[in-house]
UniProtKB/TrEMBL annotation:
This is 4-phosphopantoate--beta-alanine ligase. The lineage of its organism: Archaea, Methanobacteriati, Methanobacteriota, Stenosarchaea group, Halobacteria. It comes from Natrinema altunense (strain JCM 12890 / CGMCC 1.3731 / AJ2). HAMAP family: PPS (MF_02224). Belongs to the archaeal phosphopantothenate synthetase family. GO terms for molecular function: acid-amino acid ligase activity; ATP binding. Homodimer.
Length: 259
């Protein structure tokens, strides 16, 4: 048995996972989800969702493909152009990329808002505190004083001065019904989803088919590179992005099996 074969996802700290392990990102993701469940910020159902995403990522070669990088650059430009950008946070997002989401919010001057399907006051507060521990200055989602039309579950609850009032919303790792409802509200949606055929990326203005642990830092990097760009440059980036071509490229990569 090799040293790699003996590495378990059940580790105490991320530092125990060797960075040169061929499945490093997958092991890191599994560890963070497990830790999130133990901390009370991630629902057990999140483990199933992450497993599904991991399978798609494996077929993508566990790397950011060129079409995803183009989408991430377009997402950065779209967020920089926004008047009221909001980054939506669910349990898996909080477990996987809390500091990275805080950094992105800072780079594009966006709000962070907790929005959950399995919503309880304790879980909302735990996620908000977890985000603060990772650099977030302010976290929305605790007020829940507005509702997304045409949704009858807990994720319809949003802040009136947050997602409800936003013009651009980043909604990573979300179910399609909520993405569709936000689309019907006229929001510009940026979606991160490893399945190009799911409803969320299908309705998104900017669908990003990539692992969130790669996608969010890349969007942030692009945003910092574009921080001094004028409005015309940012609009050109958004207009040049072809969402259909990006989805087709991701599906082709997944179906090709060329790992």
């Amino acid at each position: 048995m090799s040293d790699y074969d003996s590495v378990s996802a059940d580790v105490e700290t991320e530092e125990e996972i060797p960075e040169d392990h061929p499945r490093y990102q997958d092991l890191l993701t599994r560890h963070r989800i497990e830790a999130g469940v133990e901390k009370g910020i991630t629902h057990l159902q999140g483990m199933h969702a992450e497993g599904r995403g991991s399978a798609f990522d494996y077929l993508l070669g566990e790397e950011t493909i060129p079409s995803a990088d183009e989408a991430e650059r377009a997402a950065a430009a779209q967020l920089l152009l926004a008047d009221r950008p909001v980054l939506s946070i669910n349990g898996n997002v909080a477990a996987l990329v809390p500091g990275e989401m805080a950094a992105l919010a800072d780079a594009v001057d966006a709000d962070l808002e907790v929005n959950l399907f399995n919503r309880t006051p304790d879980r909302i507060e735990a996620i908000a505190e977890h985000l603060r521990e990772h650099g977030a200055d302010d976290v929305k989602g605790l007020e829940a004083d507005a509702r997304i039309p045409n949704l009858d579950h807990e994720r319809s609850k949003v802040d009136a001065d947050g997602i409800y009032a936003a013009d651009v919303v980043l909604v990573p790792l979300e179910d399609g019904d909520r993405a569709e409802a936000l689309d019907e509200m006229g929001k510009t949606e940026i979606v991160i989803d490893l399945n190009p055929l799911s409803r969320s990326p299908q309705v998104a203005d900017v669908p990003i088919v990539d692992n969130i642990i790669r996608a969010v830092p890349t969007i942030t990097e692009h945003a910092r590179d574009l921080a001094d760009a004028d409005e015309a440059t940012l609009r050109a980036i958004v207009e040049d992005f072809d969402r259909e071509r990006a989805l087709e490229a991701a599906e082709k990569r997944i179906r090709s099996g060329e790992l």
